[in-house]
ABC transporter (Agromyces rhizosphaerae), 504 residues
Amino acid sequence: MKLELRGITKRFGSLVANDHISLTVEPGEIHCLLGENGAGKSTLMNVLYGLYRADEGEILLDDAVQHFEGPGDAMAAGIGMVHQHFMLIPVFTVAENVMLGHEETGFAGQLDLPAARAKVREISDRFGFHVDPDALVEDLPVGVQQRVEIIKALSRDARVLVFDEPTAVLTPQETDELMGIMRQLKESGASIVFITHKLREVREVADRITVIRLGKVVGEAEPTASNAELASLMVGRAVELTVQKDPPDLGDEALVVKDLTVSDPSGLVIVDDVSFHVCAGEILAVAGVQGNGQTELAEAILGLQDHVTGSIMLDGKELVDASVRDTLDAGIGFVPEDRKVDGLVGEFTIAENLMLDRSFGEPFVKAGTLQLKFRDDFAQEKLEEFDVRAPGIQTPVGRLSGGNQQKVVVARELSRDLRLFVAAQPTRGVDVGSIEFIHKRIVETRDAGVPVVLVSTELDEIEALADRVLVMYRGKVVGIVPADTPRDVLGLMMAGERPEGAAA
């Protein structure tokens, strides 16, 4: 089925999320929609899927104009979407999830589960998915759950498939498997829209590439285009994609974590008996698929977790049971993985956000009085040093782009006298140009002799920055390996397999 978008425009108040976007996807084609987070890709696909109604423009399928009142209309027309965050009910079986919303009934109005099971088996066999229709979704690996999403779409005769950032929660091996599935779907005649910001994946699987920046189509490219060319289109300027760093100049063991266990309020163990150390002047990257305990590990180091046992020693000082104030005063800088929830106060100005964790004393406060001139001079200096693009220091931080918001967080945390820097997903939702800048600052911090704990789900980022890599799976340390460990080995470790020679 041929898909054509003509002049799609979508506004949210004064914000133009999509500005007269046009593109065509031919049958049997993988068309990649490439752009940074916030570029308008997902908004465009939500218009296509009937979740939003366009203010201007048309959607055509096989040259016929479509009018979708909701996702049901889009699905009936042959459009399926595989969302970044799976739309599955964990306690239902695969067959129950596949039939949900499209229930078929048999005798006396009973649900026809045998028909749903047969449909799952037929599609699974056709594409080699190896999915058990009676398996509970919550018991399936993430990669298999994604196949269930694909089966859902295909069971409704989808001939246009939209994959929205589909590799965000996959290991490298699962990503490779997904690319193979997309090629199979293409060969079956499906039209595929692949939304991503990852250059490696684009060049591997796309037939054509459309680049969106700030809600507009800024160019088209062939898969043969270099990463530098694609990044330049995404950002609007030349970008240095390679992180320049020398071998680490290691000092003493600065952070020593022993037998660390973190539980949730119900007693479920999330971080399970984890031990490691980080030397001064070293970047230890914590890798793993999202949800395997990395977030809780970083928060435990900061004193943000309540149910913690074991030991966290920084420069010989025990931090377990210390307050967050004490950990900050011990010299820990922290970039949280969700800047909007944990890193910034959107209604506060840039100047106010830059002093958030130092508002208790000098030099920002003297004798109980806020030193406005010092605060504003400091903020102006950091605005320039960290290249924060904003009208001025009195701009509410919530009005900044994601990349500039992240620069404010990084500027605040790196402007203190640090003994340890913990960065959790430091470039999530950040444009390529800001990634380049943030990576340089992390390396500079390490080169200044500060130990760095980097938590990231992006293997490209880990390969670029890490001196050693600690891999977590289901709360445990699978192994600690050198930074030059091959991607396929790291991928196996992220799935729980420990290679020979990996420190536990």
Remarks:
- The longest helix spans residues 172-187.
- Residues 126 and 184 are 10 Å apart (CA to CA).
